[in-house]
Design brief:
With about 450 residues, the protein is of the alpha+beta class. It contains twelve helices and 26 strands. It has helices at about 30-40, 55-65, 100-110, 135-140, 175-180, 200-210, 245-255, 275-280, 320-325, 350-360, 390-400, 420-425, and strands at about 1-5, 10-15, 20-25, 45-50, 70-75, 75-80, 90-95, 115-120, 145, 150-155, 160-165, 190-195, 215-220, 225, 235-240, 255-265, 285-290, 295-300, 310, 330-335, 360-365, 370-375, 380-385, 405-410, 435-440, 445. The longest helix is centred in the middle third of the chain and has 14 residues, at about 245-255.
């Protein structure tokens, strides 16, 4: 398995281009990570279909293997054979890469074991708040400590179940971890949740659990009931295409040509399916081709775009793509949900304001709202802030820039979309190379 060194550095230079073509959306890392951990908890062998790798998905596979699962790849299918509670190691160490979801999801899962488990990561993950795991897990019978509210985490079970409460205003990821772990606890559990954001991600978790034969219920997303002593059933799980990864490609078509993204589920509960709503409100031309197995192809075509309003509170990962879209719209677009952007791979609100400002696009922050004034995009040197979604948004906007845009730390896209730069290059139709690669300590190791 590949693992990217935290100090690697790569730049990409993107210039004005027209885009045209068809791209298959990468597999959703949100679905893939949940499916990998569910397969880990199912005694037997599960098949995960159509799973493409990115750094976060690789980290989830590594965690599953550290917890005793056997992983076999056959093309785009992954077979995970597990007997979770047979793990008898005295001390376990789990490495979550730079994935906040994986960290918060696997901590309650690790608490199901009787032996101590250490959980760590690297990059921006070591500065992201994790202290919210402590009180709920202690309520439910586990011993857990963080390092001043940050990684590393030390946890020891067993998680017995019971009653707890948590604040869902920062993230729904801990709730996802509890919903996945507590069905295997000895006692049934009730989790009271206040200020829950990102409800679609919770729906995604509940839907995935049903696929593996596990049931949880809730009362208006405020009280969750989880029956104890359930069993995960090994199964075949299709990992659907990623609306998050598709978002910048769809924006590229809307501002710079004609792009079709395949392998998207129009009925998906993925939060970022709302990218279609943002595109519609901006006046983008959108076409839909219905396919088999619930998968469709979505086409966006260049047209005159106008300012729009959008609430991204439940889908904050769309902010960068929406900013790229709004930059090419006539007028001032307003996007709500800025409060959700602080604890990402970067402070995305400030990063977007700074880097798009470098390219001549004015962004104002007014409380929980971001105002983007569309206009002429210029060239320049910008930073991704080592944030995959910032890098992809800057590259997309650069397709309409009057000068070359050079993006530092461009390799960070591998966190969610391993082949982003290749796919963007495939779409361009001009005779110039879309990007120039320079390497400054761009090294990888095999793990």
């Amino acid at each position: 398995m590949k693992h990217k060194l935290a100090n690697s550095s790569m730049t990409k230079s993107v210039r004005y281009s027209t885009v045209k073509g068809r791209i298959v959306a990468p597999a959703s890392k949100s679905v893939a990570q949940r499916a990998i951990i569910a397969a880990l908890l199912a005694n037997g062998t599960s098949k995960l279909r159509n799973m493409s790798l990115c750094s976060d998905t690789q980290a989830a596979l590594g965690v599953a293997q550290a917890l005793g699962a056997q992983v076999e790849q056959r093309g785009s299918d992954y077979f995970i054979a597990s007997d979770f509670f047979a793990n008898s190691a005295r001390m376990l160490s789990l490495f979550c890469g730079e994935s906040g979801l994986l960290t918060r999801m696997v901590t309650p899962v690790a608490a199901l074991l009787s032996q101590p488990v250490g959980i760590g990561g690297y990059g921006s993950l070591v500065t992201r708040p994790i202290g919210m795991v402590e009180a709920p897990l202690r309520d439910l019978g586990a011993t857990v400590t963080t390092t001043g509210g940050l990684l590393p985490i030390h946890v020891q079970g067993k998680l017995r179940g019971g009653t707890t409460s948590l604040d869902g205003s920062v993230s729904s990821q801990l709730l996802t971890g509890l919903l996945m772990a507590l069905p295997l606890a000895h006692e049934s559990s009730t989790v009271h949740v206040s200020n829950l954001k990102s409800k679609p991600y919770v729906d995604l978790t509940i839907e995935l659990l049903k696929t593996f034969g596990v049931s949880v219920t809730h009362e208006n997303y405020e009280v969750f009931h989880i029956r104890g002593q359930q069993r995960y059933t090994p199964c075949t799980c299709n990992v659907e295409g990623d609306w998050s990864g598709a978002s910048c490609l769809l924006v590229a078509g809307a501002i710079a040509g004609h792009v079709t993204v395949e392998n998207l589920n129009l009925e998906s509960v993925q939060a970022d399916r709302e990218m279609l709503t943002a595109l519609e409100r901006a006046g983008a031309q959108i076409g839909i081709e219905s396919g088999c197995d619930g998968q469709s192809a979505v086409t966006t075509s260049q047209s005159a775009l106008h300012a729009f309003t959008f609430d991204a509170t439940d889908c904050p990962d769309l902010f960068p793509a929406i900013v790229a879209l709004a930059s090419c719209c006539n007028g001032v677009s307003g996007v709500k949900g800025v409060s959700r952007l602080t604890h990402k791979e970067s402070n995305r609100a400030l990063a977007l304001q700074k880097e798009f400002g470098t390219l001549g696009i004015k962004i104002e922050l007014r409380g929980d709202e971001m105002l983007i004034t569309g206009g002429s995009i210029g060239g320049g040197s910008v930073s991704s802030h080592n944030d995959h979604r910032i890098a992809m948004a800057l590259a997309t906007a650069a397709l309409r820039a009057s000068g070359e845009v050079t993006i530092a730390q461009a390799e960070c896209v591998e966190k969610s979309y391993l082949e982003f730069w290749r796919d963007l290059d495939v779409l361009r139709t001009d005779s110039y190379s879309l990007y120039a690669l320079t390497s400054a300590a761009c090294s990888k190791v095999m793990r």
